[in-house]
């Protein structure tokens, strides 16, 4: 007389996952990771752009205060260089003038008769050129006695482009960040073709779009 005994062999489909199920779960995890990193990258890029636009506004405000006190914006028409070196020189002139180390023409004041700085030291990130590299620096505006060769750098560690009077012949000054690709249009002439304008410049209408 037999008795019903449970089988000692479990149904292979009753425990664990099949290979197809594992692959599906793995694919879902990969997609979720991709979405997370894409979202984080977008937010980081947005924060960088926001910082660049905030810096430009701070520099514009300082430029207007400088002009109100000195009668003109810091000039760069005495500086010469190519498209690689000129942004460093004009960036230095911008920083030196707005932090009151030099006047509008680039003449040093000297440590004893420096007027007030038009910049706030905590607002901008500063850098200096070391060969082909840019090194971040900090400076105490109240104690520095020599004219520093520093410039304001954007969130991508590239100097903000400044030009006055504008080499393209337009009125006012030119001030912008090259954006995430660290490249810009040729700002020595007005640009007509949309294909020749680097669209990730910040603000987006500079240079070449008027």
Description:
- The protein is of the alpha+beta class and 210 residues long.
- It has one domain (38-196).
- Helix content is 31%, strand content 10%.
- It has two helices and five strands, in the order H-H-E-E-E-E-E.
- It has helices at residues 19-70, 86-98; strands at 125-130, 133-137, 150-153, 161-163, 174-176.
- The strands form two sheets. Strands 2-1-3 form a three-stranded antiparallel beta sheet. It has a two-stranded antiparallel ribbon with strand order 4-5.
- A hairpin with a 2-residue loop joins strand 1 and strand 2 (133-137).
Q: What is the radius of gyration computed over CA atoms, rounded to a whole number of angstroms? A: 28 Å
Tally of domains: 1
The residue ranges in which pLDDT falls below 50 over 5 or more consecutive positions are none
Strand order across the largest sheet? 2-1-3
Instruction: Count all strands and give the number.
Output: 5
Average predicted confidence as pLDDT: 82
Give the strand content. Answer: 5-15%
- Helix-strand pattern: HHEEEEE
Q: What does the overall shape look like?
A: elongated
Largest sheet: 3 strands, antiparallel
Question: By helix and strand content, what is the structural category?
Answer: alpha+beta
User: How helix-rich are the residues, as a percent range?
Assistant: 25-40%
Could you list some keywords that capture this structure?
210 residues; elongated; two-stranded antiparallel ribbon; alpha+beta; three-stranded antiparallel beta sheet; 10% strand
